Amino acid sequence: MLPLWIRRRWYRARLKDPAYAFLFDGGPEDEAVSIDCETTGLDTRRDDIITVAAVKIRGNRILTSERFEATVRPSVKINPEAIKIHRLRERDVAMGRAMAEVLPKLLHFIGGRPIVGFYLEFDIAMIDRYVRHWLGIRLPNPQIEVSSLFYERKYSDAPPGTHVDLSFAGLLTDLGLPMLSQHDAYSDALMTAMMYLQLKDMKARGVRIKRSRFSSVTPMSAG
User: Fold this and answer.
1) How far apart are alpha carbons 114 and 102 in whole angstroms?
2) Looking at the DSSP assignment, which residues form a beta bridge with residue 63?
């Protein structure tokens, strides 16, 4: 993959609407945005976003008073397996706004800030579907993957065979953070922001996450 600075130059040249050039401005110093989406399914080419939420992070504070939440009316049916996860039914999102209305507000909220997320690749792929359609580019923002920050703090020096747990619940437990209502877009964005700030602080102080001596290495099977 090309370095981000090269992709950003290419995206800027291809931007369909110059009114969105602010996406390339970098955003306020020491700010980021934590984001999460709930969707009709897991196919980034065909499924739709049904809820999206974001919250700003400034320095070591989560600005819960500066949050973005939207329910989006999808153009495809919600997969029953997805309903089991986020418990959003067709009737729950039937009065949602069109993405054509939601996306400009979301992009103005994000601005040029780095985007923080948990397995962020999926959320960005979903948003990029709409961004490519309207602006002809992908989101140019730097991306911060919380699971990668966690891996670096806990597993980067682990011996071969170590069992690696990068689940959302596992991260919260190891970081001593509360579990809010999971698979709610805003709650997930807020918990992700909390994890990000704690991991950022741990890195700054050179603190690592301890691994259990008794269960960290997966035993080899006999035979």
Assistant:
1) 20
2) 56
d(CA 199, CA 75): 38
Work out whether the CA dihedral 82, 84, 90, 92 comes out positive or negative.
negative
Tally the domains of the chain: 1
Phi (first) and psi of residue 39, to 5 degrees: -135, 170
| DSSP structure class, residue 96 | P
Expressed as residue numbers, the domain containing 101 is 22-145+183-192
pLDDT, tens digit, 9 for 90 and up, residues 184-214: 999 999 999 999 999 999 999 999 999 876 5
Q: The CATH number of the domain where 43 resides is what?
A: 3.30.420.10
Please report whether residue 59 resides in a domain: yes
Is 8 a domain residue? no
Q: Is residue 199 part of a domain?
A: no
DSSP codes, 39-94: ES-S-TTT--EEEEEEEEEETTEEEEEEEEEEEB--SSPPPHHHHHHH---HHHHT
pLDDT in tens, 124-166: 999 999 999 999 999 999 999 999 999 999 999 999 989 999 9
If DSSP codes are grouped into helix, strand and coil, which group holds residue 159?
A: coil
In a domain, 66, yes or no: yes
